[in-house]
Amino acid sequence: MAVDFLAHLPPIGEASGDAAYHDKRFALMAALKRCDTAIFIDADSRIKRLPRLNTMPAGLAVTPILQKSVAEHLENFGSWRLEAFSDLARQLSGDVEMLRTALWCSENCIAVTRDGRESRFFEAWAYAADFFQSRGVYSGEGGVIGLAANYAGWTVDYKALSPLASAIRHEAGGPKKE
Which end of the chain is more exposed for a tag (fewer CB within 10 A), N or C? Predict the structure, then answer.
């Protein structure tokens, strides 16, 4: 739970350590070895009641929290990351235009459903994680996920997880009072 993270680990950023970053992909890959769909929910989330979900669409589904392109998100939040994202887009596609077509994916709840392109998605995500780490960028996982999905040829589905999204309370920054 988020309270355990806050109470037992040193502060992140310049104060000392770094939070886990790009670790979600390992849980998703492991789950996909046994299931057709893997759903990841951040550990700092509470689920009020687990709703019934329909069959997940092939590819990537995310909660509809933020529905903007990577470029649009970076214009408003964390523009200091634009150079790293531009360089990554060039590496993945040969063109920064990918930032305008790839969608930002809220990473607190995501589903991946096998369709044969998931290895391409995870390869791009792993490459991007190493790429950003080598540049000291530990922010923007939602943009990386969106670029990896775009690279895999997936469209991002914002509807399939809507029932689950309404049942989740994400405790980013620590537990919330009831």
Answer: C
